[in-house]
Amino acid sequence: MASGGFLERLKTGLAKTRKTLTTPIGELFRGARRVDEPFLERLEEILITADVGVEATMNIIDDLREAAESRGADPEELHGILIEDIARRLRKGESRVHLAETPPTVFLVAGVNGTGKTTSIAKLAAWYMKAGKRVLLAASDTFRAAATEQLEIWAKRVGADIVRHAMGADPAAVAFDACEAALARGAEILIVDTAGRLHTDPNLMRELSKIRNVVAGKIPGAPHEVLLVLDATAGQNAISQARSFKQGVDITGIFLAKLDGTAKGGIVVAICDKLGIPVKFVGLGEGKNDMEPFDADAFSRALFDREGVAQ
Ligand SMILES: Nc1nc2c(ncn2[C@@H]2O[C@H](COP(=O)(O)OP(=O)(O)OP(=O)(O)O)[C@@H](O)[C@H]2O)c(=O)[nH]1
Ligand SMILES: [Mg+2]
Predict the structure, then answer these.
(1) Confidence class of residue 308 from pLDDT cuts 50, 70 and 90?
(2) 225, 108 contact by CB (below 8 A)
(3) Which residue from 107, 112, 115, 119 has its CB within 8 A of the most atoms of ligand 1, so it is best to mutate?
(4) Nearest-CA neighbor of 57 among 26, 15, 89, 28?
(5) Is 204 in the pocket of ligand 1 (CB under 6 A)?
(6) pLDDT, tens digit, for every residue of 217-241?
(7) Within the chain, how many helices (H) and strands (E) appear?
(8) Ligand 1, atom 17: nearest CA belongs to which residue?
(9) Residue 168 Cα, ligand 2 centroid: separation in angstroms?
(10) 255, containing H or E segment
(11) Residue 232: HSE in the Cβ half-sphere, 13 Å Cα cutoff
């Protein structure tokens, strides 16, 4: 999938982050004669501003200081080392999507209110439809008014099937029916939408576990992926959300939505470096095609291509 168009899309989606991270880093390295303490302080400031996070930033700065001491303080060479250091941290957070050997593959999608769950589900549906798969959506957000209708509109738009109940119905019952429908209709991908919830709400976390158990009881190995949708514009808050959700339900991966909407896309580095939950997809806009599977090398190329790369 790594065509030129794909890299361009990624770059466009990361335009705001390139402005706060890539460009200032490039300017810093180009304008410096040597990498010394004031230089490292300025770099630290840029990384923190782009939400790379304090811990990851400190590690990156330490690595660079060490490289400067052992190899000399030539900015051009150190710029390349910095880019590779960040790429290495991004690689730590990458892993492939787990598809069922015997379909359907079930994705359970969860997250805090408004992070982008339903839109991200539409994107996943569109992605797998394009790959020629039969996709079924389960409208297990029976809580928020018009949530089912929202998912239904997306289902129509992308050409996926949907299983829905009335508002206020038991979300686990919707998931149950959706599993049966997926098996009966030979769907290859089943994606379960859920209501937004705070990890601090024990009732809603129990509800999520119940959906999960129902799905597991109907389809062996399911859910194959439990995706936590995080809003990239939430910054370091997204990290604490992920940590808490992980305690409530087994998260297998992160869908990082709204990366296009933030200048603080450095959050990806923090997530990959520290969280121990792989990033599987990134959302780069509001449209059904504005999504890419997370690929660490492509991501760091999109961040550091041309602009900012030591010539
Ligand atoms: N710019 C941008 N906007 C996004 C992206 N993903 C979602 N959104 C927007 O975020 C808003 C909320 O999206 P939803 O998909 O409804 O979020 P949700 O998590 O399902 O919300 P609840 O069901 O209410 O918890 C909408 O306006 C979306 O268009 C993205 O990748 N980029
Ligand atoms: Mg929703």
Answers:
(1) very low
(2) yes
(3) 119
(4) 89
(5) no
(6) 999 999 999 999 999 999 999 999 9
(7) 13, 8
(8) 116
(9) 15
(10) strand 253-257
(11) 31
Residues contacting residue 158 through CB under 8 Å, at least 6 positions apart? 122, 125, 126, 129, 135, 288
Model confidence, pTM: 0.95
Q: What is the mean pLDDT of residues 158-177?
A: 97
Give the β-pairing of 161-163 and 225-231. unpaired
Q: For residues 190 and 187, what is the distance between their CA atoms, to the nearest angstrom?
A: 7
Give me 311's structure tokens: 């010539």
- Residues 77-125 have pLDDT tens digits of 999 999 999 999 999 999 999 999 999 999 999 999 999 999 999 999 9
DSSP calls for 221-277: T--SEEEEEEEGGGTHHHHHHHHHHHHHS---EEEEE-GGG-S-TTHHHHIIIII-S
Distance CA 156, CA 153 (A): 5
Could you tell me whether strands 253-257 and 279-283 are parallel, antiparallel, or unpaired per DSSP bridges? parallel
DSSP state string for 177-190: HHHHHHHHHT-SEE
- What does pLDDT average to over the chain? 94
pLDDT confidence band for 200 (50 / 70 / 90): confident
Is the shortest distance between the CB of 147 and ligand 1 below 6 Å?
yes
Task: Specify the residue for token string 């087994």.
Answer: 250
> Which atom number of ligand 1 is nearest to the Cα of residue 283?
31
| pLDDT tens, position by position, 117-155 | 999 999 999 999 999 999 999 999 999 999 999 999 999
Q: Which atom of ligand 1 is nearest to the CA of 111?
A: 19
- Cβ neighbours of residue 30 closer than 8 Å, sequence gap 6 or more: 75
What phi and psi, each to the nearest 5 degrees, are found at residue 135?
Answer: -120, 135
Tokens of 149: 């209708």
Give the nearest ligand 1 atom to 285 CA.
32
Please name which of 135, 132, 130, 109 lies closest in space to residue 120, comparing C-alpha atoms.
Answer: 109
Residues 6+ apart with CB under 8 A from 237: none
